[in-house]
User: Which sequence fits this backbone?
């Protein structure tokens, strides 16, 4: 482990061995070989990743708990925490083996400390602090949402801020102006259910089970998205905020009305119509934000970014308006430590390391 770049030990900044500031050229070779170990345990994936330099992911190991939580119809926090406790050291070892690095090669530990499930976050943070202390290497606490935004950097080597990011996941729906690698401005957010929550709740209404997002996306391909006219919620003029509770209620009321009238409910049509309504609102607001902020780059991130219909419509709209459209590979859209590693790297080189007394923040904002 190199001691060329440290801030937390003596409060000084820069490439200490060279006596240069952190932005000067003599740091470049060191930064290219800089090794980050990242840990992600915000929900129901235990993940560890090794990053070389700024964007070269050497490994990104993910242990999913979907099969375990499926029988409960959603994530059970206590079970998630126990699974993280069992898996965390295993995924770290697997990640290091896959990357062919040793403990002596690690320069930085990055870990998600929020937002997420409190118990799940504690497991990852405790492990990261233990590694940092035992190895005497710096640690960075990473905002999970910053990680989602950073996920696209691994797939697009030339992508740099500024740009607009649409972050769509199980717990969040945000339009974010990304001014720099660590400079974020929220332009819009959900006022009730996140888009992923809406998908899961509608999936339960339709009897599709968990996880709802992929099931609705698949079923909608067999349905008619114009069959049911679900109300779009736009909120007041000029806002980029979202509201999905109304359409969730609209689906429930429609299904109940049809059943009470003795009519068969074509779940594929309901799924397709629900998805069309949600996608129209999300895409429209993202386009409006791009225009107002005079931006020509859109990065879509988060688990719901894997949705095929949202990707299709967003891609078409961006092409129409000559907007550069970026979306990470599916594995980088869902929760993973690779995105945390990239976010940790940038935070460290712009802001330095964190002290070991940082806490988990389940309700952390972007």
Assistant:
């Amino acid at each position: 482990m190199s001691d060329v770049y440290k801030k937390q030990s003596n409060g000084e900044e820069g490439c200490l061995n060279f006596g240069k500031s952190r932005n000067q050229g003599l740091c470049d070779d060191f930064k290219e070989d800089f090794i980050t170990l990242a840990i992600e345990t915000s929900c129901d994936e235990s993940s560890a990743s090794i990053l070389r330099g700024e964007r070269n992911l050497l490994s990104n190991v993910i242990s999913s708990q979907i099969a375990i939580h499926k029988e409960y119809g959603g994530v059970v926090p206590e079970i998630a925490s126990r699974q993280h406790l069992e898996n965390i050291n295993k995924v770290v070892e697997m990640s290091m083996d896959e990357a062919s690095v040793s403990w002596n090669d690690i320069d930085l530990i990055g870990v998600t400390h929020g937002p997420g499930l409190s118990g799940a976050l504690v497991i990852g943070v405790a492990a990261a602090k233990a590694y940092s202390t035992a190895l005497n290497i710096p640690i960075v606490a990473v905002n999970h949402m910053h990680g989602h935004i950073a996920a696209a950097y691994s797939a697009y080597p030339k992508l740099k801020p500024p740009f607009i990011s649409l972050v769509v996941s199980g717990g969040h729906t945000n339009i974010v102006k990304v001014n720099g690698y660590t400079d974020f401005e929220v332009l819009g957010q959900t006022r009730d259910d996140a888009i992923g929550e809406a998908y899961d709740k509608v999936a339960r209404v339709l009897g599709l089970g968990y996880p709802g997002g992929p099931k609705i996306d698949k079923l909608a391909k067999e349905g008619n998205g114009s069959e049911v006219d679900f109300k779009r919620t736009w909120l007041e003029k000029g806002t980029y905020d979202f509201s999905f509770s109304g359409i969730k209620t609209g689906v429930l009321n429609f299904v109940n009305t049809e059943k009470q009238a003795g009519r068969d409910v074509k779940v594929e049509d309901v799924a397709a119509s629900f998805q069309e309504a949600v996608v129209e609102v999300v895409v429209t607001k993202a386009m409006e934000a791009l225009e107002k902020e005079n931006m020509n780059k859109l990065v879509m991130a988060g688990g719901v970014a894997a949705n095929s219909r949202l990707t299709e419509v967003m891609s078409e709209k961006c092409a129409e308006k000559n907007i550069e459209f970026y979306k990470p590979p599916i594995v980088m859209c869902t929760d993973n430590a690779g995105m945390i590693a990239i976010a940790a790297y940038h935070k460290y080189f712009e802001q330095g390391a964190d002290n070991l007394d940082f806490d988990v923040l389940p309700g952390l904002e972007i």
Remarks:
- Strands lie at 35-40, 45-52, 56-64, 108-114, 139-143, 163-168, 173-180, 183-189, 297-301, 324-326.
- Residues 153 and 160 are 8 Å apart (CA to CA).
- Confidence is low (pLDDT under 50) at residues 1-26.
- The radius of gyration is 21 Å.
